[in-house]
Design goal:
Layout: H1 14-24, H2 31-39, H3 52-64
Length: 67
């Protein structure tokens, strides 16, 4: 049975993004952590969702800046 609900990586809710990052890594990521990153300048779509590629690129750039 095919998955009825497809996730668009260009438009993830904070909960979807947190779940995807937690599943891909070795630590728990919460929507609150992502919200703090958004407040610090991480990119967000106009509708409040997040593009996972843009978010990861932002994290990498911030990591390189000593964050």
């Amino acid at each position: 049975m095919p998955d009825e609900r497809r996730i668009n990586p260009q438009r993830l809710t904070l909960a979807e993004l947190a779940r995807a990052l937690s599943n891909a890594g070795s630590r728990l990521i919460t929507p609150e952590q992502i919200e703090a990153d958004l407040a610090a300048g991480a990119p967000r779509n106009a509708d409040g969702t997040v593009n996972i590629l843009f978010y990861i690129a932002w994290l990498a750039r911030e990591s390189g800046n000593g964050r």
